[in-house]
Specification:
about 170 residues, 4 helices, alpha/beta
């Protein structure tokens, strides 16, 4: 069975409520994700590995961050990688990664959540579960986005800001 690398870049998926300020913040750790995955896999850590990188809201990400992510992915031995990312620029990052990832014979699935895992876990759990299942079962290479039960190439999935979810673009 393949070992899947999960890279946490932040985004709403990773936000936590900060009681002193009343703000949602992205902490530089993988605590909430690790806790959730432990429930998914009943503690079998051999199925995945989690690494943190960048820890930003995607609106604050720039091409320098995307380049750092790309180089990090290319330096990893795993061929199947999930990237937890903010939803506002997930498509931009996916398109940025596309050429390099295909040349490296890797499968990268980006995912996010419109609601924080720590506050309302349903959407985040569905998105990471769908991405993980796709990566595990797929023999594809390239870059995909997994949101709202859809796994598609970045040019085929778009965030509908009016409806508040991602849609498949045929």
């Amino acid at each position: 069975m393949d070992n899947i690398l999960i890279i946490n870049c932040g985004g709403t998926f990773s936000k936590s409520y900060e009681p002193l300020t009343g703000n949602l913040i992205i902490k530089n750790n993988n605590k909430n994700i690790r806790k959730t995955l432990k429930k998914f896999f009943i503690g079998n850590k051999k199925l995945y590995k989690i690494k943190g990188l960048i820890y930003k809201d995607s609106l604050d990400m720039d091409d320098k961050d995307r380049e750092e992510l790309k180089e990090f992915i290319l330096s990893q031995k795993e061929e199947k990688i999930l990237v937890i990312h903010g939803t506002d620029t997930i498509d931009k990052t996916a398109l940025y990664l596309q050429k390099s990832i295909i040349k490296a014979n890797k499968l990268v699935v980006l995912l996010g959540s419109m609601e924080p895992l720590s506050i309302s876990p349903a959407e985040a759990c569905i998105n990471i579960g769908c991405a993980y299942g796709y990566a595990l079962a797929s023999s594809e290479i390239g870059v995909y986005i997994s949101m709202n039960g859809i796994v598609q190439k970045p040019e085929n999935i778009k965030k509908n800001r009016e409806l508040g979810y991602f849609q498949w673009q045929k």
